[in-house]
Design a protein that fits this description.
It is built from ten helices and 14 strands. By secondary structure, it is α/β, with parallel strands linked by helices. The protein has a six-stranded mixed β-sheet, with helices on both faces. A four-stranded antiparallel β-sheet has the order 2-1-4-5. Strands 12-13-11-14 form a four-stranded antiparallel β-sheet. The chain is elongated and about 80 Å long. Adenosine-5'-triphosphate binds next to helix 1. GO terms for molecular function: ATP binding. Belongs to the ABC transporter superfamily. Keywords: ATP-binding, Nucleotide-binding, Transport. This is ABC transporter ATP-binding protein.
């Protein structure tokens, strides 16, 4: 089976001459949640817009479940749902009319049972006869998702799904996205919230200046680039790291009152035990200890800044 999304050498130069995408390669397998992270202007929306047929690329290829978006556009587009950031139209329409119209746009036969289930799953069923303009911001966002799912797409793009929503709705959205994945829908989301990527994604892609600089399983990314610090508060300050402990690469901080050990979060757990034993042998008394772990945010900032340097 071809991957649900295959992007190769994708390039976009806008008519202004600005190069928004510089040869992006990306393969997405069915059933994953993929988070695309990047600073403002990195090219996220351009990428999504090309896949959805809203912007023409200037180079490269995109295939959705094997259907080329240029030569087999209809088939490719019918497999995609797009949840944009803003609800622009249909303010006067009812929820039901909007959602069933969206389904019709893709030439799908009527299936009221499916739409009913969709609206129930999104807690919109009670609101089905209300005009969209009368709904709360959170409900409007749910309508956007219902619209995007009305034609039963297999690949769902969510462009900053939780920008500006409250914590409760954000949690609801996350639950919903996970449920969608369980039904076999592949989800690609863009987000500025690192926490969101950390919470939701199976894989993470980092895009900056039109280049995908990293694609990695979230867990692997965290353990590969994540660092832990073990901070030992000493009973007595040390003027320097004892000779016998030099091989651990320790650092003294806080005027010799703290000894800091930096290690990969994935491994070297055994070394912590060795270190503590050797400290005891060297007669270094420990008053207290704590650990800190770099977050995805630290990793992201390091990556993006590193790329710019
Ligand atoms: N129609 C256009 N003509 C010229 N330049 C454009 C056009 N659309 C976007 N750009 C530029 O391309 C770059 C990438 O924009 P894009 O919207 O893809 O970024 P983004 O990663 O989605 O950013 P954000 O996180 O702010 O939404 C930006 O520098 C933007 O100014």
């Amino acid at each position: 089976m071809p991957p649900i999304l295959q992007i190769s050498g994708l390039a976009k130069t806008y008519s202004s001459g600005f190069q928004a995408l510089k040869g992006v390669d990306l393969t997405i397998e069915t059933g994953e949640i993929f988070a695309l992270l990047g600073p403002n202007g990195a090219g996220k929306t351009t990428l999504i817009s090309i896949v959805c047929g809203l912007v023409n690329p200037t180079g490269g290829k995109v295939a959705v479940a094997g259907h080329d978006i240029a030569t087999d556009y209809r088939a490719a587009r019918s497999l995609i749902g797009l949840v944009p950031q803003e609800l622009a139209t249909e303010r006067f329409e009812s929820v039901w009319a909007t959602v069933s119209f969206s389904r019709g746009l893709f030439g799908k036969p009527k299936n009221n049972a499916y739409l009913e289930k969709l609206l129930r799953d999104l807690s919109l069923w009670e609101k089905r006869d209300e005009r969209i303009m009368a709904l709360s911001g959170g409900m409007k966002r749910r309508v956007l998702i219902a619209k995007a799912l009305a034609h039963e797409p297999r690949l769902l793009f969510l462009d900053e799904p939780t920008a500006g929503v409250d914590v409760e709705l954000r949690r609801d959205m996350w639950r919903l996205i996970r449920e969608l994945r369980e039904t076999g829908v592949t989800v690609i989301l863009t987000t500025h919230y690192i926490e969101e990527a950390e919470e939701m994604a199976d894989r993470i892609g980092v895009i900056t200046h039109g280049e995908l600089i990293l694609v990695e399983e979230k867990a692997a990314l965290m353990s590969k680039l994540g660092r832990k610090e073990l901070i030992l508060q000493l009973c007595e300050p040390l003027p320097r790291v004892p000779e016998a402990l030099l091989r651990h690469g320790l650092e003294l901080r806080d005027g010799g009152n703290e000894l800091v050990y930096v290690y990969d979060s994935a491994r070297e757990r055994a070394d912590v035990a060795v270190l503590l034993t050797e400290l005891a042998v060297a007669g270094v008394g420990i008053k207290d200890l704590r650990t800190t772990q770099s977050s995805l945010e630290d990793i992201f900032v390091t990556l993006v800044n590193g790329e710019r340097a």
